[in-house]
User: Fold these one by one.
Assistant:
Number 1:
Amino acid sequence: MATAASEVQLLQDGIQANAPSKGSFALNMLFHNNSWQVRRGFGQVTQFDTEMSAPLPGALSDWGFKKHLGSHLIKTNFGNLQMLSVFLADVNTSFTGGTTPRAPIVPLYVVSIYDLTTNERFEVPLYMHTSESAVSASFKDVVPTTVGGRDTTLVGVEGVEGVNPQYQTNREASYTAWVKAKDEFFFFEEFNDILYFGNKTAGVWAYLPASFNGLRTTAVDRFNKHEYAMSYGESSMITPVVLSPGLSPEAFDYVRTADMGEPVDCAVVQNRLVYATGKTLWWTDPGFANAINSNNELIVPSEEQITCIAELNANLVIFTANETWLYQPSNGDIVVDGRLTRASDTIGCVGPNAITKVEGSLVWTDTGGIYSTQNGLTITPLSNDILPFFTGQGMSNPVTSYFVSTPVFGHTTLSGEQPQTTLRFDSEGVKCVYVASMKLLVISIPKLSGALVLTSGKWSWWTFESNVKDDGGVEPVAAVGVTQNVPSPWVLGYQDDLFVLAGPDVQALIDDAEYVDAGTDLDNDTTDRSFFILEYGRGGAIDRSITDEDDRKITGVGRLIAPIGTGATDDGGFFFWDPIKVPAGYVFPVGEHEVTLGEECILIPVTVVPPQDVWDFAGGEGVDQIRMYLSFDNTRWVPIFDGVGTSTVEVMVPPERLASAIPAASDKPWTIATYTNTSFGTPSATGGYLLIAWTGSDADHYHEPQMNLNQGRHNRLLYLPFKRVVAKVADDTSGMAWDTPTVGGAKQVYLNDDVNGILKRIPLYILNRWSLGSDSVRKDDSVAQPVDWAYKSTNVGLEEGKELKMRGVWANLLSHGAGTDKLNAVWPYGLFNTLIGSDRKEWITQIIDLSPAQAAVEQQDETQPFESKNTLRTRVQKSDGSLTDKVFQRKPGGTDITWGDTSTQATGNLLIGDEDTSELSISMSVKGQSFSVMHFGFIMNRAEKLMMEGIRGLIRVVGGRRRRGR
């Protein structure tokens, strides 16, 4: 007679780590809708780098964004959702490159604003503004001061009075005043539709939300002289908060920077902005962010300095590293006569970003745990179940114990980086957010590349790393290691949306561009450091899924080519500006070349600045000839010609040039053609030499024989159309290798008044921009990684006190099945796997603990070479009597029913229906006095999904209690 069996529920609590006998553990899961489910993936929204310039080769190999120092989501008053982020960056402050005193390589704070609604981005480095230096009557005709002082890097010239804004810098003089950046996180607070942010080093700044269209060059201008320097000025969107008198300047004194310390946080209480510095709180006048009555200074009698502050129920909660205070402000103009109470002398907060509101309560992170309060006085711990994570003992991740390199089971060479086995709290950059729609509390810990997640009182650990890895060889095999394509994640939430900003994505770029004249490489090799934004659920179930959301615009090194020969001058010049990408589908008007999808086609804007005080336009002089003899990398770039089989480049001029471009009969004033050598004799479509010529006397145009140009000013001249050579699309180039070959002993780049015999050879300035090869662009899931998941149960059967046998488990699952197109085709474990450890050996039950002749893991939907088992119940009967699956992704050559498939009726398509839940039986046989069952798997396809409504273990009694335990 068979022994009666009993069933025990294995899915219960979340992480239970606070006991000698470890309890349950949940990895990349959340408890939602009464079920444990694998979290969705975070898909890429955009990837970007800085618009500040790259240095010259060898000057700084690791330039660009160095570290993310904080982000904030803001819903603007015009309805757009925007993300403001601050980065520490090592950059060249001038887009010409070099290390001259006017172009220092310094660490800067770079602010990036990304509009998630319009997919536009804007960037502003922090520098001193006019508002910080202009004398005003507000404070008795003395220079105004800011909220918080700051150190600046002054890069000016002798004799300059005062401090001037950075945009006045030009080729002749520099007046820059950059904020010296340090590795220190920023705080953020929204007040009256303006976002205030800052830290002790930078002081306080304000972002006035705006809509924008495209980027601009953020580096300073060393190409141009003062008269024709870049016309844009300092940003009005990002501005320092400058102190000023408030509502009652006659009755009260108002605070200056010298009176304050350096702000560490701010909060909004009763329509006032409160700044925290040291042990002091500064309350602004109602409705003002920059007017502080000197009587509204409150000193907190704390043992330590303030780390952060937060509003709760119109009161202010104040934190130090180990203390919590509640301040209830008084009414009236003076608010510092209220009541101050110390709520705790052992619990504090680690920083201004480690705190959030959760449905009327305040939740924050201390070095000893996570706490909440509803009134500021009664503090409730939320992290008792995960206390070892904060105490230094650490919280172990059981999943990493089960991965061994193949084909040698039970062995790892430790040759590569290993997965994290022990998780310990690290306070640097901790961020707390709450998503109301999922009732989801997320505490992201960037240093651990993960986050603690709380839903329905159950904790889970979300990791942004994956154990799925291959050895990278020609024939890849599974290897013990870790994939880290989402480094240092910073989680942000706004209402129902959940985002991650992560990076840096470090990519070494080898410059393949070549000078055609000398046949030598440019060798402007660099290392790009970019960051990216991910959105929860975007792109399906895998992390960092990507189609074509790589928006990097890697700035190269600007170059000056000086003129040589009679008439050479350093005044004025030709300027080749930032290339404009031509969208797919555009048809060029003359040659009718249509830009195809995936084809890299650009327009290079060209401007000209005629030297000053050269021509007497009023006296009949002027420019009647333009000549540019150039060379370019024709192995990687080819012009768009004005027809098939021609070497003449399509002429594209701006509206102001039309009056000097109208041909008479067959004569054309413009000649733009390619040639094979420096003789510029016979045109050739395959040549790497380009002649750009305009002769005003060749046509009867409106301004004949001269071109309508202004001296000492930029004049738009034309747009040069080019496209990538198809055979070289995999090459990375720092530019097009523009050069001016010597023709007849001179650099033939000039303007000429042929009638009056005035010829001026002028400089050529080139703003280079990298073009990434097809293998370097992040696209088509090239940086995607699987989502590793696991649920390990607590030990069951201890209460029996007898010898038991677990015969297997019954799992009630909702699954989409396993995709056939996986991110890693050689990884030996699939979507759903089961492992049973007996007698509290769950952390050490590895393949080496069991007989090599049998599998240690029961696998469902695993990849080759193992036999596949399905997480879907096959229960749809076709008209011919055969059974088939109902799936979300058709298997190649398969006949499964697919959702919404109307291509053929022969497969019995399903247009309407619910996702199925299936009960699966997993048979294993393990003896012991207690058991821990771990289900784990890897989401390696966008369409995969897994929810567990319940999993029950089947236990039979096979003997009495042993005299000696295991």
Number 2:
Amino acid sequence: MFAALALPVAARAQAAGSSAAGSPAAYATFTKDLTAQHGLFTIWRKGDKLYLELTKDQLDTDFIETAVPSSGLGGFGITPGLPYLQLPSARIVRFSRTGDKIAVTWPNTSFIAPDGTPAARAIAQTFAPSVVAAAPVVAADASSGRIVIDAAFFLGDLLDVTNNLRQNLGTDKMPGTAYRLDDTRTYFGPSKAFPENVIVEADQTFTSTQPPDAVDNVTDARAIQLDVKYNIATAPPLGSYMPRLADDRIGYYPNIQLQFGTDLVRERQVRMIARWNLARHPMVYYISNTVPVQYRDTIRSALLEWNKAFAKIGYPQAVIVKDQPDDPAWDPDDIRYSTVRWLTQSNRGGYAQAGLVFDPRTGEMIHTSVVIDANLVTFPYLEYEDMAKPLGEAGARSGFAAREAAFAAGAHQSAMFGLSALQAAGDVAPGDVPQQYVNGLLRWVVMHESGHNWGLQHNFIASEAYTAKQIQSKAFTDQYGLANSVMEYIPTNIWPKGVSTGEYFQTVLGPYDYYAIHYGYASIPGATTPEAERSTLRSWASAWSDPRYRFAMDEDVDWGTGHAIDPRIDQFDLTDDNIGWCQAQLKISDTIVRGIQRRYTQSGETHDALRQAFGVALTPVFGCTAFAWHYVGGEELSRSHIGDPSAVPPLVPVSRTQSKRAFDLLDAHLFGTAAWNVSPSLMRQMVYTEWVTDLPQPKWAYDPPVRHDIPLTTIAMKLQRQTIDAMFAPVLLQRLDDLPLKYSRDSTMTLADLFAWMQASAFGELRQGKAASANEIHRNLQQMYARTLVKLMLSPDPGTPYDAQSLARAELKALSHDVSLASASRGLDAMEQAHLAALKDIADRALSAKTVIAAPAPPAATP
């Protein structure tokens, strides 16, 4: 990938340097009329030209390079200050002279062997470096060895912004809207030189003849200027830092390399954790002057909270927090400073992310940052589509930036629900947002993001550590938090009126956070190599079976692909009984809905508040239905190693009783006839406010929905469809079908249970000869599920078990019988009669369909 990006850049550099053909000019003559910026490298500038000076000891030397945008699209995927993870967040860059050119290369650091060995020579021949550019040497000083090169290669699309715009704006679906780099409107922006790094900014214009609507917040979307900062920094000297081995039982970001020094290994992967080098210096944060004054103390306190964990291992001042000084010489681009910055974006529901740069050779972290979007701490009007989205479904396969965007949006959504619950209970006045509540949310989010700065990954089993009774105690949550780690995605801790409540947010470090910091940063006396630490580290990591110290990562919540299987591991759930917690949240949801008309019908006000409150109330409906179907075919995973204290087998069944309890929640709140019961008078009032639309406007100014009312049927159908598709996906059906091979009869849910429970939920009243109780939403469910059975029987997706096809046929026969029974009922209106006739036709046509069943393929020949 690097090589593919590098070729056009190299060509650009050569073209830019063509005017300097021939021997390099004399150094003094060439630089006489240029302006110098002195730092790690000397930058020379004149007009629209930029040159980089290299000393002889900087040739063939490792430097660390990052490239990040310094401007963005207001929330459409490109965010200022954050690296693109399609490329590494940091890479090694070298400058090597070849005649009168400098080869700018990205060496491959992923493959290692001891220097001077045959394996090292094989790696050098097998994994060639990527050539970023062949930059002309335009001036040289023979006596000192200094050379000056043309830096025009920085103006190329090294960040692959073209592809990022394509993905984030969806231009593939809109022919003619793709963006391309416009060379004629691309030039150098500001450049800076500091003692340990230099900054070169490329102001790049990307053009489209017909831009997509998504960027209508740009003044003229036909030409978007994005500024990219290239940062080249001193690489820590090898040997000044000892890497530490990673362990799958504790979550650190790993720096992964393949080692070829020996063949006597089970796997070639060597995983070292990414971490800050406290032996060199503490992590010093500067709070940017862009951060509103009223939030600075909260942010400072959140960052300093990590000192409590480090104090236990001998580093009481691991974190130092300062305000940005009122000094024109201070610059946040100086790599010696870690910063917390504030963003203002037009279409985010709250956003926060950690930025971390580590040496790809060793895993040593050299720079950190935190960015926060202003919308995180505001509670504005949001359309119901913004609120009614499943929580806990952020794809583990997506990039870190996308997952953190989902985290902050989910945290903000949960805080909105919590605030609405407090208003419904009368604890907070309608429209009031207590500052303490806002500060609690901000403190937790900053603690989470700064945890990433220490190298910690997410921990999505952390919420299972405590019982409901424990997190309902303020004394308990003040000491231990709501979960065992701030690295969990934790919802607001809200309970029905009359139930005591602890802290609303995770405002302290959890036991796992102390445990993980000890693993990553505590010294091991006498150990002088990573391998010498192995036995001690294994012992430290052996406590996974203790709920206080459990860890589960992003791949464990990849429910969308069927990879995830443990229903304890989820996002935005609480307690060791997330179904019980959900039942409490759904009770709160009902309370909010019942009180909307009483609380939000003040004279003179619009009806927007009712609409917003209803959207907020749907939050647990979407989140908890997702948690519930995760119990279908579920198994509990253990990361314990053989011989760990109290270790359980890697797979433990989810009991049939627990699975049925989860499905009953789906029946009550998603599929059953009693679900989606909303007052007709409330439905008539939830409209939006119309505004004038005569002139062109960006969407953030006014973007009305298609319908004036809230389409409850459409919302219900979407969630029902998502849930049915998930439960009847081939991989989940396979897992259900396999459970009897691993566990005793009746101990777990079976494939037959899934079909029987779903049949009863969708068609139960038909078996009793009734049909009049089904409203439009339930009739839609019945049509949808009947068609699902037909598909499973006649045209199943690849991988669908034969047992599932057999059960689908059996349920269609039962449906045909039950519809005949219900059709004989008295008092059916025309709609009910038509619906039953359609169901009967769907089932009978499928059962009588003439299909050709292909013979099984012969087994493959044995080699």
